[in-house]
Amino acid sequence: QDMFLLGEPGPELRHLVYLYCIILGKELEIVSVTRDTSESDLKQRREIVDGCLRFVDQPPVSAAKNGRVLLLEGIEKAERNVLPTLNNLLENREMALEDRTFLVAPDRASDVGRLPEHIPVNENFEVIAIGQPGRGNPL
C-alpha cells in the first residue's frame, strides 16, 4: 500500500519511513524531488562505461524492479512535466524506459505476454511520498 505523509519541514517523517523499513526488513531507495527534477532523474540515465554506452536505472526504476520501498521527498516541489511520469508509476505501475524496455504492473504481465522488453514490477514495490501541506503545485 502506497502512502502520502504530510508534515512540516524536518527529519521526523523521513525517520519514520526509515523505522518502517527497518521493522519490516525492507530496502529503501530515495529521491529528493526539487524543481529541477527531470524525467531522467526518475527513469534511466545514459553513462559511458569502458567506452560503451549503458543505461543506468535511477532509484524509482531500481525500486520497482527489485521490490524496494521508494521514498519521494518534497513531492510538492515536482514540476508539472514530471507529474505524469510519477502518476503512471503510482497508479498503473507502468513506465516506458529509455533503453526501450517497459515496466508493467505485475497483474498485467501475463496479459501483455512474456516479451523480453516487458519487465514486471515486483509485487513488493511500495511508494512513500513526503510533502508539506499547502505548498507547491497542486497534485
Explain what you see.
The protein has 139 residues and is an alpha/beta fold. The chain has helices at residues 12-24, 39-42, 59-66, 83-92; strands at 3-6, 28-32, 44-49, 52-57, 69-73, 95-96, 102-104, 118-120, 126-131. The strands form 3 sheets. It has a 4-stranded parallel sheet. The radius of gyration is 16 Å and the shape is globular. The mean pLDDT is 89.
SSE layout and pairing:
Blueprint: E1 3-6, H1 12-24, E2 28-32, H2 39-42, E3 44-49, E4 52-57, H3 59-66, E5 69-73, H4 83-92, E6 95-96, E7 102-104, E8 118-120, E9 126-131
What class would the helix/strand composition place it in? Answer: alpha/beta
Query: Could you tell me the number of beta strands?
Result: 9
Q: Whole-Å distance between the termini?
A: 19 Å
Q: Calculate the mean pLDDT score and round it.
A: 89
Radius of gyration: 16 Å
**Strand content of the residues, in percent?**
25-35%
**What percentage of residues falls in helices of 4 or more residues?**
25-40%
Largest sheet: 4 strands, parallel
Tally of separate helices: 4
Strand order of the largest sheet: 1-9-5-2
- Give the overall shape, derived from the CA principal axes: globular
Order of helices and strands: EHEHEEHEHEEEE
- In the predicted model, the low-confidence regions spanning at least 5 consecutive residues are none
